Amino acid sequence: MSFVTAVPEAVSVAANDLASIGSAINSANAAAALSTTGMMAAAADEVSAGIAALFGAYAQAYQALSNQAAAFHEQFVQVLTAGAGSYAAAEAANASPLQMLEQGVLDVVNAPTQVLLGRPIIGNGTNGTTPGQPGGAGGLLFGNGGNGAAGAVGQPGGAGGAAGLIGNGGMGGAGGAGAAGGAGGAGGWLYGNGGSGGTGGVGVAGINGGIGAVGGNGGNAGLIGTGGAGGTGGAGLAGATGVNPTAGPAASTGTSPADVVGPDSQTGSNGGTGATGVGLTPTGGTGGEGASATSTSGTSVTATGGAGGNPGASIAGGAGAAGGAGGNATVTNFNGNAIGGNGANGTMGAAPGSSGGDGGAGGNATTIRGVGATQGGSGGSGGNGATGASGGNGSAGGAGGAGGTGGTLFGNGGNGGVGGAGGVGGGGAAGGAGGIGGNAGTATVNGTSSSANISSTGGAGGHGGTGGNAGNGGTGGTGGIGGVPGGTGGHGGLLSGASGTGGTAGPGGAGGAGGVGGTSVGTGGTSGTGAISPPPGPNGTPGTNGADGSHG
């Protein structure tokens, strides 16, 4: 028995499996007992009764044998379970004194060096617990270095603890946002691998242009061992979302010429062009209003209102300029036509995301009495909205840390860290809204004769401007450099060992999402309707509706 080994956990599992098997067999026997031990005869003759009695006797004998087997199975499971418990108790009893003895010896040996040198003779170094705390050094004779703790925001990660004579260096802690990762601890002087460097922190606005922080350098090996791998560089800061600037104020409005009144046909002058945007007033000026025209006498005369003035051109930083309104037209004599002036079109926004200029309203047309026709002026179309501002570019990822040097005699150098991923580009800003289409001029007739031949037609409403295009998403940042200059792979050992490979560049950041398309808020201006003439003159015909603005 001195050569027998047992695993208490495995014995306990086997006992549970055997118990499950016995339970399943007992359930099957109980289910079959009723139908097999009490068989009914197939007929009332003696032969059938004898056959049924024979099979019933066999079934009863089987049930008796099964009960004996089940009792033996249960006893076996109980013995096996008790054996597992005995093995576990013996193992615990033997282990506890040895562990206590081992810990007691280590406490006596390590206490002097811990007080004098801050590290034990045998044992692993403690891991850092507070942000940025380095790992403790391993035992002078034997033990691994402790791992460094991750840094807080702006705080580098803690360095990994160094090993003593034999042992591996601790891992460097990850750097906080905007800070470098901790360096890996050195491997044992005689034998041991260097610890890997910590990951660099992500880029932060206002620190180094948002570039990801560098990864920690890998720890160097001692006489024999492999250098630690450099830490991965931090990811670059994401680009800012595009923001549309506020459009500047408008330049001066175009001149409005004097109205004209007189006999015979009259035509109003067109409104003046708005001033061009310049300097602190980048938005073009609104076009001037067309002059009104009134015909007071004459035969078959026509009064025509002046067209609205064109808006001034906007420069960078300005919104779309509004078109001038058309002039009104009035005929007061018995036989004449009145035609309102057309409104001018608005212009497209010049600043990113700015709205288009509104279209000018059409002039109203009115005849006071007599034979004739009226037609209101058409409203001007709204200007198109400007494209939204583009999102900002993502920052570059941080450089990977340098690989540690391999063992002096034998060992490979550590690989350089992978560069951090570039930041995601910022989303584009929304496009500007389209300008509102100008309202159409009204047409009004007020005839006084029973034989008058009069009609009125409202002008067409202006089209709403098209919404601006969404802004382009920002370009994703470039991936970080794999390994800092001179810190590619660590050097191999003098007698044997290969240099580590340089870290690969990190992936570039994804491009930002495009902004939301601008809305077309412009609607067609309402048309004028023919006014009802007092009896016995006929009513004017309704004007046509203005067209709806197109969607962005």
Summarize the structure.
This protein has 552 residues and is mostly helical. It contains two helices and ten strands. The strands form two sheets. The protein has a five-stranded parallel β-sheet, with no helix packed on it. It has a five-stranded parallel β-sheet with strand order 2-4-6-8-10, with no helix packed on it.
Work out the helicity level. Answer: 10-25%
Order of helices and strands: HHEEEEEEEEEE
Strand order of the largest sheet: 1-3-5-7-9
Strand content: 5-15%
Strand elements, count: 10
Sheet with most strands: 5 strands, parallel
Protein model, in words:
By secondary structure, the protein is mainly α. Among the domains are: 108 residues, Helix Hairpins (Orthogonal Bundle); 178 residues, no CATH class. Helices cover 18% and strands 6% of the residues. The protein contains 2 helices and 10 strands. The strands form 2 sheets. Strands 1-3-5-7-9 form a 5-stranded parallel sheet, with no helix packed on it. A 5-stranded parallel sheet has the order 2-4-6-8-10, with no helix packed on it. α1 packs antiparallel against α2. The radius of gyration is 48 Å and the shape is elongated. The C terminus is likely disordered.
Which keywords apply here?
PE-PGRS_N; mainly alpha; about 550 residues; elongated; disordered C terminus; 2 helices
Q: Any chance you could write out the topology, listing elements then pairs?
A:
Blueprint: H1 8-37, H2 46-117, E1 260-262, E2 266-267, E3 293-295, E4 301-304, E5 329-331, E6 336-339, E7 365-367, E8 372-375, E9 443-445, E10 454-457
Parallel strand pairs: 1-3, 2-4, 3-5, 4-6, 5-7, 6-8, 7-9, 8-10
Helix pairs in contact: 1-2
